[in-house]
């Protein structure tokens, strides 16, 4: 693959990632949600991870190896990107603090398992179909598309940095999701306590019955 083809794939997967996340949160909160870091309809971290999968795991035959390796690479990438975004802009675009088995709220085992499965789907199903389209794009058209997308992403990034003070309004869904998960965890803990009390009462009754 050429650099232009890699870049086109980056844009395609960034767009698909944006569609996936925006639909997920839109259905969850029953209203339109734009989850992208940029103003445009792309989530660059999805494009970055998918291009890494293509470059490093595209020729791996074992599904198990792809699953485990992609889990590791996605987790590392997600942690680093989360840290950089927070360090540069003082904000988080995702937060797993209320998820079980998370590391500093930046990654979690559950999300990593999901990304491992998604990487398998990408490499085995999506990418072959996408490459059939990409390979038919003439070289000159490919370069023009690449230049246009680079210019678009650059200006979008400039707008995002300029409007950084408004991102709290754009990231409302992160706080609402964290609150929903927190409430669900509290209900789960309450159920565990009730079950523990019931189990303790049963043990006491059995012990008393045999003691008699």
UniProtKB/TrEMBL annotation:
Keywords: Coiled coil, Membrane, Transmembrane, Transmembrane helix. The chain crosses the membrane at residues 7-25, 37-57, 64-85, 105-126, 133-155. Residues 174-205 form a coiled coil. The keyword Coiled coil applies. This is ABC transporter permease. It comes from Candidatus Ornithomonoglobus merdipullorum.
């Amino acid at each position: 693959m050429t650099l232009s083809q890699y870049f086109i794939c980056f844009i395609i997967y960034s767009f698909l990632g944006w569609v996936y996340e925006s639909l997920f949160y839109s259905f969850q909160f029953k209203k339109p949600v734009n989850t992208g870091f940029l103003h445009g309809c792309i989530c660059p971290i999805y494009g970055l991870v998918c291009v890494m999968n293509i470059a490093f795991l595209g020729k791996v035959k074992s599904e198990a190896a792809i699953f485990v390796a992609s889990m590791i690479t996605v987790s590392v990438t997600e942690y680093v990107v989360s840290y950089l975004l927070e360090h540069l802009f003082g904000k988080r675009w995702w937060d797993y603090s209320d998820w079980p088995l998370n590391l500093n709220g930046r990654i979690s085992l559950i999300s990593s398992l999901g990304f491992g499965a998604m990487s398998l789907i990408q490499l085995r199903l999506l990418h072959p179909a996408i490459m059939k389209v990409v390979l038919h794009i003439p070289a000159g058209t490919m370069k023009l598309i690449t230049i246009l997308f680079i210019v678009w992403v650059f200006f979008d990034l400039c707008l995002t940095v300029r409007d950084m003070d408004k991102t709290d309004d754009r990231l409302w869904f992160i706080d609402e999701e964290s609150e929903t998960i927190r409430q669900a965890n509290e209900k789960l803990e309450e159920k565990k306590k009730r079950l523990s009390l019931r189990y303790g009462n049963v043990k006491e009754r059995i012990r008393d019955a045999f003691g008699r």
